[in-house]
Design a protein that fits this description.
The chain is of the alpha/beta class and 215 residues long. The chain folds into two domains: 85 residues; 110 residues. A five-stranded parallel beta sheet has the order 2-1-3-4-5, with helices on one face. Helix 3 links the parallel strand 3 and strand 4.
Length: 215
Amino acid sequence: MIDFRCHLAGIVGVFLALGVGMLIGTQLSQDGMLLEEQMRLVERIEDGLNRMRAENRRLQEEVDALTERLRREERFVDAAIASWAGGRLPAGPVTLYAAEDDPLASRLRAVLELAGVRVAVKWAADPPPPAQLAAPYVVLWAQGWGPVEELWDAPPPGGVVAAASAPGGSAGGARPGVVPLLPAPEGLQAVVEGLAEAGTGMHAGGAAPEGAQGF
């Protein structure tokens, strides 16, 4: 005779096994779906990164093109200033005094040399004493040197001082020999015009002050 309790236990065992199998199958199915969703997410992220890389390359190409265009325009402006200055400036050598971190110094030197003027430079941590200056000269007055009007009564003749504290406007400003220190190209033009005015009547071939050296 079949034991009812054993029969019931067998039936329960079958249903338990079926339930466990269904649970395992469902879990495996869910894991597969999760994996597929993760793969789709990775693909979307990769697509987004690729688009960003392509956009960055495009923007970098635009920046490079604009940078090159700016350089060409700077060279054109510098050549135009040098062309105007040709014959108006002392043949030199012009001594240029500037702080080592002055961004206008090297460009001004290039413009003067393009105009046919010999240039010597003296890097200065402090403003040069007026008695040290010999015409023709240019002083790019650094902001850390203090207001030029408080340290100098007047610049020595035959040169030009470009200072941020100088009034704006045409070369010479409100004080003879002092022009506003402006960003290029306005700053270049102001210095060159001021040097042309200061050098009127000077003859070429003067010697550079002692201690000056070329760039």
